[in-house]
Amino acid sequence: MRRYEKREVTETRDVLAEDVCDWCGQPIDRKGLQSIHDKDDFECKWETGSLYPEGGWGPKSEVELCRECRPRFFTMLEAQGVKVQRGKWEW
Ligand SMILES: [Zn+2]
Description:
- The chain is of the alpha+beta class.
- It has a domain at 19-28 and 39-83.
- The protein has one helix at 69-79; strands at residues 44-47, 50-52, 55-57, 60-63.
- Strand 2 (50-52) and strand 3 (55-57) form a beta hairpin.
- The radius of gyration is 21 Å and the shape is extended.
- The structure holds zinc ion (ZN).
- The site of zinc ion has 8 residues, from loops.
């Protein structure tokens, strides 16, 4: 029989410390918005695989960029011939 007792233990886990830009390596400031109504979303990812109602899986590639590198990213794409669609979003 195993007997258990309560002991306080110190445990080391991986926790998110900060998000850093995949281009320049600087921390991504997510608190720089002026109000809760300000929007500043950036998403660049590629996912493939299988998707079912109960779950899915597959390879994924993505990049996270800081606010300074996002315009550089689009400028770089356009310099390579990618037609970046620019416009306005509306909710
Ligand atoms: Zn950056």
